[in-house]
UniProtKB/TrEMBL annotation:
Record's keyword terms, sorted: Calcium, Lipoprotein, Metal-binding, Myristate, Repeat
Top-level taxon: Eukaryota
Source species of the chain: Cottoperca gobio
Domain EF-hand: 61-96, 97-132
Pfam families linked: EF-hand_7, EF-hand_8
UniProt protein name: Visinin-like
Gene3D superfamilies on file: EF-hand (1.10.238.10)
Known role: May be involved in the calcium-dependent regulation of rhodopsin phosphorylation. Binds three calcium ions.
PROSITE patterns membership: EF_HAND_1, EF_HAND_2
Gene (name only): LOC115015815
Length: 192
């Protein structure tokens, strides 16, 4: 996508990223130079992404979660992230507005990409998130959150849905905004 042959990011992508992220033109240009150095093809594979992501969680098993994060940002389903998808991912996971972050979180939990979240999808993502928690932090978790299944059950209750019902994006966003515990349960923030 964009200007993969030249040494500079295309004007179109630059303007789009300036509009949709908090990054300045200079920052985007610096990110692009770094991206091109690391990924000369102009694309990052799922494996490369997982390798980068795992460096942020050296004490944990980040592979499953990084695979889901990658899927949620590979918007054209081509198995790679181009520069624009990569920068949007950085923005959304670091400093995006709360509603935009929750839209992204919904896409993370919507494993089959059908526009709804089921309890089994919540369990799948909660299991991936749980693997990010270092072993030495597990003992400090509340009794109703000390397994992936318990976390998934607790999160699912916030949506007031039965076992076989589905949650739409708007319900997900509102449910998380209405409850700080739900917001905490959909992510892992390292304590160190």
């Amino acid at each position: 996508m964009g200007n993969s042959k030249s040494g500079a990011v295309s004007k179109e992508i630059l303007e789009d990223l300036k509009l949709n992220t908090k990054f300045s033109e200079t920052e985007i240009a610096q990110w692009y130079e770094n991206f091109k150095r690391q990924c000369p093809t102009g694309r990052i594979s799922k494996e490369e992404f997982q390798s980068i992501y795992e460096k942020f969680f050296p004490e944990s098993d980040a592979q499953t979660y990084s695979r889901h994060v990658f899927r949620s940002f590979d918007t054209n389903d081509d198995g790679t992230l181009d520069f624009k998808e990569y920068i949007i991912a950085l923005h959304m996971t670091s400093t995006g507005k709360t509603t935009r972050k929750l839209e992204w979180a919904f896409s993370l939990f919507d494993v089959d990409k059908n526009g709804y979240i089921t309890k089994s999808e919540v369990k799948e993502i909660c299991t991936a998130i749980f693997k990010l928690i270092p072993k030495d932090e597990l003992s400090g978790l509340a009794d109703d959150e000390n397994t992936a299944e318990k976390r998934a059950d607790k999160l699912w209750k916030f949506f007031d849905k039965g076992e076989n019902e589905r949650v739409a994006e708007g319900e997900f966003i509102q449910g998380v905004l209405d409850n700080e515990d739900a917001l905490r349960l959909i992510q892992y923030t390292p304590s160190k």
